[in-house]
Design a protein that fits this description.
5 strands, Rossmann fold, 4 helices, about 130 residues, alpha/beta, single chain, globular
């Protein structure tokens, strides 16, 4: 039996007065603790913005899914901040990730797409600037 690996990295950068780029990479299953890190960072980044637009680059190639509590956290994030999400570019190569992208668009105000290549995903995000 193989050893289980989990990791979650997140970075946020302001790319304009009302724009934010949220970059994430997940390995293994997303956990509740990951959202306890992510949500305050995002809320701090958009604090004081009148009409924030959040672009997301989510590297899902090593993602195995969400734990139940993390899936609930993801839903709550979408309900609270979904209209602020402009474009969500997911990098992955699994069929379920394509389905997750389609479901995710129900909870955001913008677009979500899955890409095989990270460079293509970044290019798509830069088109929305």
């Amino acid at each position: 039996m193989g050893e289980y690996h989990h990791g979650f990295s997140v970075s946020i950068e302001r790319t304009g007065d009302e724009r934010v780029l949220l970059s994430m990479h997940a390995r293994g299953k997303l956990q509740h603790e990951d959202y306890e890190t992510l949500v305050p960072m995002l809320e701090s980044a958009i604090a004081g913005m009148d009409h924030p637009k959040v672009d997301v680059l989510f590297d899902m190639r090593d993602l195995a899914g969400w734990e139940i509590r993390a899936a609930w956290d993801d839903l709550k994030l979408g309900l609270k901040h979904g209209r602020q999400f402009n474009r969500v570019a997911m990098v992955g190569d699994k069929q379920w990730q394509e389905v997750a992208a389609k479901i995710g668009t129900w909870f955001i105000g913008g677009e979500a797409r899955v890409f095989d290549d990270k460079t293509e995903a970044l290019a798509w995000l830069s088109q929305s600037a």
